[in-house]
Amino acid sequence: MEKSYCTAIVLAAGRGNRMETEVHKQYLLLAGKPIVCYSLQLFQESSVIDEIILVTGEGEADYCRKNFVEKYGFTKVSSILTGGKERFHSVWNGLREAREEGYVFIHDAARPFTDEEMLVRLYETVRLDKACAAGMPVKDTIKVVDSDYNVKDTPDRRSLWMVQTPQVFETKLVKQAYEMLMQDQEKHVVTDDAGVVEEMLGHPVRLVKGSYKNIKITTPEDLEVGEAFAGRGTS
């Protein structure tokens, strides 16, 4: 079967307040390399990805072009765009730049340990189901609490997964979902792209096994874990 065109949207517009540093988390060094460059390098070398759209913070496009794209030779980066106030605004900016045909991989730059095997699994799944996302079963027991932190419910963890990125969609499908969201965004609370497709279109999203190493660097503790992963040659 002929390979379909695949675009990767790398989201690097977040400020990362929980990291408690002046430097945005995606630009911090991890084992000597900026965190954002791990994802860019993966997509650059991947047989699945044809094009990369990088979404950055306001006023950071030239910085990213010089210090990341040009320095490391990421030739698949076709556009460097400015993100928006919220994550979904940044995704929408990237989607408007993406080709209409094929599939789009939406990925958080703060997840540096995605791998090629995961991309292949996602690509094979999205061709069948049009919408999928990386994820893993939760290891811990999850509690639902009220406003006073009293336990209200203990859901069966066998049915619970933690969702990761990349999240992958037929491009036409996810563009349609985001167009609907942007027309009525005040009425919806969405935290990931799968949620937009689920809520706006009622389209099912299949979860694909990611990796427990596919962590999001959000806090100083995450950075320490990431240093350990990187030190063992995980990239």
Describe what you observe in this structure:
There is one protein chain. The protein has about 240 residues and is an alpha/beta fold. The protein has a single domain (about 5-230), classed as Alpha-Beta Complex (Spore Coat Polysaccharide Biosynthesis Protein SpsA, Chain A). Helices cover about 35% and strands about 25% of the residues. The protein is built from seven helices and eleven strands. It has helices at about 35-45, 60-70, 85-95, 115-130, 170-185, 195-200, 220-230; strands spanning about 5-10, 30, 35, 50-55, 75-80, 105-110, 130-135, 145, 150-155, 160-170, 205-210. The protein has a seven-stranded mixed sheet with strand order 5-4-1-6-10-7-11, sandwiched between helices. Helix 5 (about 170-185) crosses helix 6. The longest helix is centred in the middle third of the chain and has 14 residues, at about 115-130. The two termini are about 30 Å apart. The model is unreliable at about 15-20 (pLDDT under 50).
Question: How would you describe this structure in keywords?
Answer:
235 residues, alpha/beta, Spore Coat Polysaccharide Biosynthesis Protein SpsA, Chain A, 7-stranded mixed β-sheet, two-stranded antiparallel ribbon, 11 strands, globular
